[in-house]
Amino acid sequence: MSLKTVWLFRRLFSAILVGLGGLFASMTLGMTGCVSRSESDVVVYSALDEEFAAPILASFERSTDHEIGVIGKFDIESTKTVGLANQLIAEAKSPRCDLFWNNEIMHTVRLQKLGLLEPHDWDVPSTWPTDMIASDGTWCGFAARARVLLINTDLLAQKENWPSQVAELADEKWSQRCAMARPLFGTTATHFAVLRDLLGPDAAFDLLQQIHDNAVILSGNKQVAQAVSSGKVAWGLTDTDDAIIEKDLGYPVAIVYPDQLPDQPGTLRIPNTLARIKNSPHPIASGVLANFLMTPEIEDRLAMGRSSQLPISKDSKFPPAVLPDEPVRWMRVDFEAAAEGWDEWAKTLADLFAN
């Protein structure tokens, strides 16, 4: 039986119970702290692909510790994060969603700045990276992807000739031999919003102008990874989940974590984020689900999956295959600062990358 079918049955049953004894259920909740029958389901909007998120949500439903149903809304479009974020904005006066599971972060911060998220007491250690948790507790990051360079080792056989910095996308020696996704959606948009905060708006725009003129610009990170693995370009900037797929398929590719020298910014990692929606229909149930998801065990499940996501928790027990043997220097990021002026910045980039 599908999650949606189960949810519909439970929703009907819940409605009957609420009609007969809603006041009693509310009193019981206040006395015991348990989830009342009127909160026996939770609605999740997930930008993480259904193939990864749905089994985890189903395992929550099967848990003997919870009697909460889950209905997941998944978007299959390449701009799904934008679409789901815009739907949450449209529904702000009467929310339908309880918990937003985003597969990146910038639009989560956008919702935070609009005041649409509910603070939560995230059950994470004090050592949790500060760039992975909201300053006001409205979101928390976990299970990240890294922004990496994917190299075609047939075309670039000598390791000393490999690029090692994101900025090399603008180097004329790689003219039309390197690739990047349009920085209008997803992790590429987030990446250059972060660089705008790090470098300053003018320097970031100048870099993007040079990349626009020098690199092959493609529709998405997957297309970049496939262009590298097929030999259409020598290398490209993509995400670890797209890069590891091409490597696992046996193509002649290598993954480089860029900007690792002391005077360089480090590699950017972009987490999944969880955020509870303000004034949602099932606030207590959404908190229970959020706590279930924000655990090392769930990070390990995502690390073991085909997308090989990178756990944030130091208690994670499964190192993903996409990680290199040597430690990675991660970029220090203020995602909240990077999201400032997002709409104006997005319009500027849309004009630049219109064709």
Annotate the secondary structure layout.
Elements: H1 3-32, E1 41-46, H2 50-62, E2 69-74, H3 80-90, E3 99-102, H4 106-113, E4 117-118, E5 140-152, E6 178-181, H5 186-199, H6 201-214, E7 216-218, H7 221-229, E8 235-239, H8 240-248, E9 253-256, E10 269-277, H9 283-293, H10 296-304, H11 335-338, H12 342-352
Helix pairs in contact: 3-4, 5-6, 7-8
Keywords: Signal
Protein name: Extracellular solute-binding protein
Pfam family, one: SBP_bac_6
Describe this structure in words.
InterPro entries: Ferric-bd. It holds the Pfam family SBP_bac_6. Keywords: Signal. Helix 5 packs across helix 6 (201-214). The chain is an alpha/beta fold and 355 residues long. The N and C termini lie far apart (46 Å). Strands 1, 2, 3, 4, 5, 6, 7, 8, 9 and 10 form a 10-stranded mixed sheet that branches. Helix 2 (50-62) links the parallel strand 1 (41-46) and strand 2 (69-74). It is 40% helix and 16% strand. The protein folds into 2 domains: 3-144 and 271-304, Periplasmic binding protein-like II (D-Maltodextrin-Binding Protein, domain 2); 145-268 and 330-352, D-Maltodextrin-Binding Protein, domain 2.
Quick overview:
Keywords: Signal. It comes from Rhodopirellula halodulae. Helix content is 40%, strand content 16%.
- Roughly what fraction of the amino acids lie in strands? 15-25%
How many extended strands?
A: 10
Mean pLDDT: 88
Biggest sheet features: 10 strands, mixed
State the shape: globular
Q: What is the ordering of alpha helices and beta strands?
A: HEHEHEHEEEHHEHEHEEHHHH
Percent of residues in helices? 40-55%
CATH names the topology of the largest domain as: D-Maltodextrin-Binding Protein, domain 2
Q: What would you call the structural class?
A: alpha/beta
CATH class of the largest domain: Alpha Beta
* Radius of gyration computed on alpha carbons: 22 Å
